[in-house]
Every structure is written in C-alpha cells, then in structure tokens.
UniProtKB/TrEMBL annotation:
Gene3D superfamilies: Nucleoside Triphosphate Pyrophosphohydrolase (3.90.79.10). The keyword Transport does not apply. The keyword Cell inner membrane does not apply. Its cofactor is Mg(2+). GO terms for molecular function: hydrolase activity. This is NUDIX hydrolase. The lineage of its organism: Bacteria, Thermotogati, Deinococcota, Deinococci, Deinococcales. It comes from Deinococcus cavernae. PANTHER family: ADP-RIBOSE PYROPHOSPHATASE YJHB-RELATED, GDP-MANNOSE MANNOSYL HYDROLASE.
Length: 158
C-alpha cells in the first residue's frame, strides 16, 4: 500500500465544448516536437482559480470568444503518466457554454481554431508517443467521444 503515501502534483484543467451546427470548436497547437495537436479550448487552472473561471479565461485566450452560462458536463479524474517525469493526479472538467465574439486567439501556442464536424473530430486525434504527453492518452478523449455521440457520463475515473 505504499502508493497511498505518495504525493503527486495536482493538475486541474477545464475545457469547453463549443458547438455550432453539429460542429465542435477545436484549437490547433504546436507541440514541443513540432507536431500539431488538436484539442478542446481550455486549459490549466491557476493557483486559487476555480475550474469554471479557468475555462472562461483559457477559452478567451485560445479562441478570442467570450463564454458565459457554463454548464458542467463531466469530470475526468485519476493518476496519469505514472512512472514519467510528468506523473500527476489529474482533475479535468468539461463544460458547455454560450459564446459570443469572433475567433481571434491571443495564445502564442495556438496556430489555428477550427469548427470540425462531429464525424471528423476523432480522426484528428493523434494517440501514442511521446508517453509524457497526456493529450495523446486515449482516455482523455473518451468524454469527448461520448459527448459527440450524445451520451456523456458525468464521471470518468482514469
């Protein structure tokens, strides 16, 4: 039972499903290895910041859109990247929201913002190496797959 005595860094993040005409808004970001990663708008919460406020702030930064009326969809929680230098305990919230404004990202890591048809979302996801990269863990995408299919669960233990 030694694993109970370990202290893991906590990673809290919030992402928002922005939907328009059966399209999901995704951001394109350049990864450290130069590849392009497609993800939901949102990101890490700052110290002392709640997940809802993190979602609003990060969506504005990554897309230029203002989101309001957040509705909680799901929470993904558990240990990730065990045995790597990025080992962490993750709490990732997903919301839906109303949005206004125009797409105008100010995050320098964002190289594009795209409305992607539901049927094409999963085809853009790159699983696999590097193993230190939680975005490429298939479990991260299970809540999104369920959301697109119309049957999201509230809780996803990792």
């Amino acid at each position: 039972m030694s694993h109970l005595s370990r202290t893991l860094p906590l990673k809290r993040a919030a992402h928002v499903y922005l939907v328009q005409d059966k399209h999901l808004l995704l951001v394109e970001e350049r990864m450290d290895d130069g590849s392009i990663f497609y993800g939901l708008p949102g990101g890490k919460a700052l110290a002392g910041e709640n997940l809802g406020d993190a979602a609003v702030r990060q969506v504005k930064l990554e897309t230029g859109l203002t989101v309001t009326d957040l509705n909680f969809v799901s929470l993904l929680e558990g240990e990730m990247l065990t045995g790597t230098r990025n080992e962490t305990y993750a709490m990732f919230a997903r919301f839906t929201a109303h949005f206004t404004g125009r797409i105008d990202p100010t995050d320098p890591e964002v190289v594009g913002v795209k409305w992607v048809p539901f049927a094409q979302v999963e085809g853009l996801v790159r699983y696999g190496p590097p193993p230190e990269c939680e975005e490429r863990n298939p479990l991260i995408w299970v809540p999104t797959r369920d959301f697109i299919a119309g049957n999201p669960r509230t809780y996803y233990p990792i």
